[in-house]
Amino acid sequence: MANIAAKRIKREFKEVMKSEEVAGGAIKLELVNDSWTELQGEIAGPSDTPYEGGTFVLEIKVPETYPFNPPKIRFVTKIWHPNVSSVTGAICLDILKDQWAAALTLRTVLLSLQALLSAAEPNDPQDAVVAKQYKENPQLFHMTARHWTNVYAGGPASIVEFNQKVQRLLDMGVDEHDARVALSTYDWELERATEQLFS
Amino acid sequence: MKVTIKSWTGVATWRWIANDDNCGICRMPFDSCCPDCKLPGDECPLVWGACSHCFHIHCIVKWLHSQPQQQCPMCRQDWKFNNK
């Protein structure tokens, strides 16, 4: 790894460890390998959002050209959010793309991702299905996001009816995650989800 | 008493006067050099932009070369070297 990238990541790592956000449990950062090219981040779901109470794990890959190019970050924890792919965890956030600046750090990026959970940008979506639901049926979006937070991110127990519908599909032999995606996509209408799964 | 000085050695220190302690690009202290240099000072000077932000010259040049738009990595204003 280029000299500047490794040195900077080492300094940033120390900086994050000393930060008040780590002390307060809002963010977390861990090394994945000894070469400083891959790290694992964690952000706490912000309060007053459907992500509250959840812990979201992020995969952080540091390119050879860092800090002249942004780190590559995706959600490992599955999440229902307009700017995050519900399939791959890919993130649509300008500072991770063309608005990256060398003055940004892992700490500020993690905080920006946490802010993204509080303020979605449905007009610049990564996941069109989620964004559509966010705009057309905000209440259902909120409940779905809360359900995903509960199941995948360890958030508080949520909507019993959703769990029952997932169970119905499980009983039919459908994979649990596939069932959840189909139901979430079709606004929790069991018939339409079933139809899509078996078509 | 009369003292005769036979020889003397002057000692001086120096430091950059910058608006920050660390370079925002490599995050090394300004009193140290960029990660590609060995010694701070004339070999690894600081430069200021018209926006008042300051970087190791090697760092800002690399940043500008890596970007389609020539903007300060701190404030995103168009980057101009301050030739004061």
From TrEMBL, chain A:
The keyword Transferase applies. It is an enzyme of class 2 (transferase). Keywords: ATP-binding, Nucleotide-binding, Transferase, Ubl conjugation pathway. Its EC number is 2.3.2.23. Pfam families: UQ_con. Belongs to the ubiquitin-conjugating enzyme family. This is E2 ubiquitin-conjugating enzyme. It comes from Danaus plexippus plexippus. The lineage of its organism: Eukaryota, Metazoa, Ecdysozoa, Arthropoda, Hexapoda.
From TrEMBL, chain B:
Pathway: Protein modification; protein ubiquitination. GO terms for cellular component: anaphase-promoting complex. The keyword DNA repair does not apply. GO terms for molecular function: cullin family protein binding; ubiquitin protein ligase activity; zinc ion binding. GO terms for biological process: anaphase-promoting complex-dependent catabolic process; cell division. Transmembrane segments: none annotated. Its main location: nucleus. Residues 34-76 form the RING-type domain. CDD domains: RING-H2_APC11 (cd16456). PROSITE patterns: ZF_RING_2. Keywords: Cell cycle, Cell division, Metal-binding, Mitosis, Nucleus, Ubl conjugation pathway, Zinc, Zinc-finger. It is found in: Nucleus. Coiled coil: none annotated. It holds the Pfam family zf-ANAPC11. InterPro entries: RING-box_E3_Ubiquitin_Ligase, RING-H2_APC11, Znf_RING, Znf_RING/FYVE/PHD. Together with the cullin protein ANAPC2, constitutes the catalytic component of the anaphase promoting complex/cyclosome (APC/C), a cell cycle-regulated E3 ubiquitin ligase that controls progression through mitosis and the G1 phase of the cell cycle. The APC/C complex acts by mediating ubiquitination and subsequent degradation of target proteins: it mainly mediates the formation of 'Lys-11'-linked polyubiquitin chains and, to a lower extent, the formation of 'Lys-48'- and 'Lys-63'-linked polyubiquitin chains. Belongs to the RING-box family. The mammalian APC/C is composed at least of 14 distinct subunits ANAPC1, ANAPC2, CDC27/APC3, ANAPC4, ANAPC5, CDC16/APC6, ANAPC7, CDC23/APC8, ANAPC10, ANAPC11, CDC26/APC12, ANAPC13, ANAPC15 and ANAPC16 that assemble into a complex of at least 19 chains with a combined molecular mass of around 1.2 MDa; APC/C interacts with FZR1 and FBXO5. Interacts with the cullin domain of ANAPC2. Interacts with UBE2D2. This is Anaphase-promoting complex subunit 11. It comes from Danaus chrysippus.
